[in-house]
Amino acid sequence: MSDMNGFLIAAPQSGSGKTTVCLAIMAALARRGMAVAPFKCGPDFIDPGYHRAVTGRHSINLDGWMCGEEYVRQTFLTALAGKAIAVIEGVMGLFDGIAASSTDGSSAQIAAMTGAPVVLVVNARGMAASAAALVKGFTGFDPRVGVAGVIFNNVGSDAHAALLKEALASHCPESTCFGCIPRDEALAIPSRHLGLVTADDNPLSAEFTGRLADMAERCLDLDGLCQLGFDSTLPLPSTPLRERKSHARLLSGAEAPVRIAVARDSAFCFMYEDNLRLLEEAGAELTFFSPLNDAALPADSHGIYLPGGYPELFAAQLDKNGTMKESIRTAIVKEMPVYAECGGFVYLTEGIDASENQASADFVGVFPVRCRMLPRRKALGYRQAELAGDVAIGKKGAVVRGHEFHYSEIGTMPAEVERCYQVSRQGVTLGTEGYRIRNCLASYIHLHFGSNRDIATTFVTACREQRQSKK
Where are the domains of the chain? Predict the structure, then answer.
């Protein structure tokens, strides 16, 4: 891993300003005309949407627990092809992951796997010399993680900034101060129950993005950050990298492409970009459609992927689009392979019941249950699932990993509906999930296809068989 520049933005704790700092740096570098390769540690879908809006490039999730070291480094190198500078946004606190005794699922794990230098964003409100003590603790905590420097956030004044720099230079001379960001509530990004609102719901205006870039140019040592490089001693992945297949390459092949219809609009926008890449590598041609706005599935579809999102926010519009609902119902009745997760699963139920802030709506109706929105989060965390039988995404006994977070719950699923997942969390059995009707598999769990490369190939094979059966 030589001749690669970039860094990982982390923090001692959530709420320190990682996302704002990352977006400001990305915006400034993009405005300079630099190619920025954005990444996000962990399973988050929302921050990558903002990364894409600022840089014009898809942001890739890097998750050591879901995908493992070999895959993380492979996908990192794949996405970093060219002369782009890598900017990786961390998750939670630097060393916070799936358990207190392990770095699994943490920013620190990604830093160690990729050799990324860490830049720590410290919320310095109310601190001076104590900020240096905090930094000193983080720099010496794990020898596999190199903390290259610090950005102090929420700095009260020039005098406060001078105190922070003096304390850092005195007590942590090996750590560079890459800047001090003053308090500015105007740079805050709105939040909602699942974290930040999506980039589709809250698009960053050119004026706001410009203010972020101006702040980065004014307050940060961008040239110094750009000179940071990745650890060149880490070995390359043993598995050869594969190019993402283009439609032209697929169409030029001896066999016609397998077309998978992927829902992608404001209601269905939570999907790992790597899932799409792996499907294309497995031989799929992806055709995107909007359950909100399109009248029917794309023509000649051989499979459907319904990812997560916020269908509850667009419930009335989804309800009114009866021709799309009928198109999906018909495809499922005809045994088309369908994979749906979280919001996509909700869309396949009978609908959402009315609640305090939610109007009733009717959806596709394949699964004979209704959902309701809850005032508090229903589930959050990593999940591992073992397949209880052969399904469209894998064979019996296969192990897949993903993440679950939602504020809805379904009614009691009838016993005759097949359960295909044996779900666990950190070795603790959580029960069965993953519901199948005909060739349609749906679940609340967002699977990362990088957790088991057979997911993409098996699903594409199922869709190919569907195409052949139609012939």
Answer: 6-226, 247-470
CATH level 3 topology of 6-226: Rossmann fold (3.40.50)
- From first to last of its 471 residues, the chain has per-residue pLDDT tens of 446 899 999 999 998 999 999 999 999 999 999 999 999 999 998 899 999 999 999 999 999 999 999 999 999 988 887 778 999 999 999 999 998 888 999 999 999 999 999 999 999 999 999 999 999 999 999 999 999 999 999 999 999 999 999 999 999 999 999 999 999 877 776 554 334 455 555 678 889 999 999 999 999 999 999 999 988 777 766 654 454 444 444 444 556 789 999 999 999 999 999 999 999 999 999 999 999 999 999 999 999 999 999 999 999 999 999 999 999 999 999 999 999 999 999 999 999 999 888 999 999 999 999 999 998 889 899 999 999 999 999 999 999 999 999 999 999 999 999 999 999 998 899 999 999 999 999 999 999 999 999 999 999 999 999 888 766
342 in active site: yes
Dist. CA 40–CA 43, nearest whole Å: 8
Q: Residue 265 gets which letter from DSSP?
A: S
CB atoms within 10 A of CB 98: 17
What 8-state DSSP symbol labels residue 237?
P
- C-alpha distances (whole Å) from 181 to each of 47, 172, 212, 285, 303 are 21, 20, 11, 45, 49
The one-letter code for the residue type at 444 is Y
Which residue in this structure is represented by tokens 């920025």?
A: 36
Measured CA to CA, the distance from residue 39 to residue 37 in angstroms comes to 7
**Helix-, strand-, coil-residue percentages of the chain, each rounded to 5:** 35, 30, 40
Q: In the CATH scheme, what architecture does the domain 247-470 have? A: 3-Layer(aba) Sandwich (3.40)
> Can 6-226 and 247-470 be said to share one CATH topology?
yes
Candidate list 67, 172, 219, 342, residue with the active-site label: 342
Give me the helices (H) in 38-143, please: 46-55, 64-67, 69-79, 107-114, 129-139
The overall pTM is greater than 0.70: yes
CA 282 from centroid of its chain's CA atoms: 21
